[in-house]
Amino acid sequence: MKGIILAGGSGTRLYPITISVSKQLLPVYDKPMIYYPLSVLMLAGINEILFITTPHDQESFRKLLGDGSDLGCKFEYAVQNEPNGLAEAFIIGEEFIGDDKVALALGDNIFYGNEFGSLLRSKINVEGASIFAYPVRDPQRYGVVEFDKDKKVISIEEKPEVPKSKYAVPGLYFYDNKVVEYAKKVEPSDRGEKEISTINEMYLEAGELEVGVMTRGMTWFDTGTVESLDDASEFIRVLQNRQSTMIGCIEEVAHQRGFIFKSGLQKSIDRYGKSKYGAYLKDIVANL
To answer: Can you give the residue ranges of the Nucleotidyl transferase domain (predicted)?
Structure first.
């Protein structure tokens, strides 16, 4: 399975913060936001990843992440000229995806939870589509899943004015290779975007959509607003300082998944210098 991280858009809800910098490069406590979805895909065992950015932000992402070789990964980059919707990611990434399955992570979504890595790795061999549902107070901001009394999916709607449930679809999706052809069939919605909910509806109609409800032990942040960005930063700060573990440390995940070894960690330590992040990597190496 390959991975795509969609890190485009203009981040207007965060203006003036994002006028001159990509939202996905903003700090979430002690790391760039993009580290978190990247660590999620790597935790799933994915090390071939395409970053889709705006034209003017791409060089900043290249400077931060490089070609992925320091992490035992292969990174590629593509451009989304206009925010035409999430489904367009599969059209932009068609050549990159090739004949493989693909996971899509949104660059402004942050996940954390017990056994989350095991859950992710269970999706690698997905047949059809696998997405998640998470209970929220404001489901009208998201794609919304409706279940029947047996927790079977009935419908999926994108940002409905009157949501049929409290279950939002977080920005993490796993698909088989049919997603590319499905994406090409998606027509722009009333919002003028190619909605990923339309792709999910196609899989639902084909009887090939799996929806897992995230349990109370899992946490999801969509950092698209100032309040949610602040909440995510505070969550990361408190959890890291209490547990002495770092969330979203891409080098640590690369080592855990066998993408790099001790020498690779040492190289990263030199890059981060005297920072708290570098000191954390030093502790990992010291305990190997």
So the answer is: 2-236
CA atoms within 13 A on the CB side of 8: 22
- Residues 224-276 pLDDT 10s: 899 999 999 999 999 999 988 999 999 999 999 999 999 999 989 988 988 99
Instruction: Give the HSE-up count for residue 276: Cα atoms under 13 Å, Cβ half-sphere.
Output: 9
Per-residue pLDDT of 53-66, as tens digits, reads 999 999 999 999 99
Using DSSP, state whether 19 is helix, strand or coil.
Answer: coil
**Is the backbone peptide bond immediately before 32 cis, with ω within 30 degrees of 0?**
no
Q: Using DSSP, state whether 151 is helix, strand or coil.
A: coil
Could you give the CA distance from residue 120 to residue 113 in angstroms, rounded to a whole number?
11
Taking phi first (over 0 means left), then psi (-120 to 50 degrees means alpha), and beta for anything else, what does residue 6 get? beta
What is the pTM (predicted TM-score) of this model? 0.94
Cα separation of the two ends of the chain: 29
Q: Which of 112, 116, 95 is nearest to 50 (CA)?
A: 95
Helix/strand/coil for 35: helix
CB 41 within 8 A of CB 49: yes
